[in-house]
Design a protein that fits this description.
By secondary structure, the protein is an all-alpha fold. The chain has helices at residues 4-21, 38-72.
């Protein structure tokens, strides 16, 4: 069943892949940040962003699963 929450979860998990596979968007050296070429700091930034998005997706997934169990009367497992 596709719900808005599951769409948000999918987008959170898909965004880092799209960002890293779209090499043309970051295959350059400028703008440099404290002497680090854009190519490197962009990828390192996505490590942090990916962590946040994965945590968000996991939290939403747990909330969605709890709500489904409550609606179906499954109780705690």
């Amino acid at each position: 069943m596709v719900t808005p929450v599951r769409v948000v979860i999918a987008l959170c998990l898909l965004a880092p892949f799209v960002a890293m596979l779209w090499v043309g968007s970051y295959a350059k050296t400028d703008p440099a940040y404290i002497g680090i070429p854009f190519f490197y700091w962009y990828q390192m930034l996505w490590v942090l962003v990916s962590t946040g998005l994965t945590m968000t997706a996991y939290t939403l997934w747990r909330r969605d699963q709890r709500a489904r169990r409550t609606r179906s009367g499954g109780g705690a497992q």
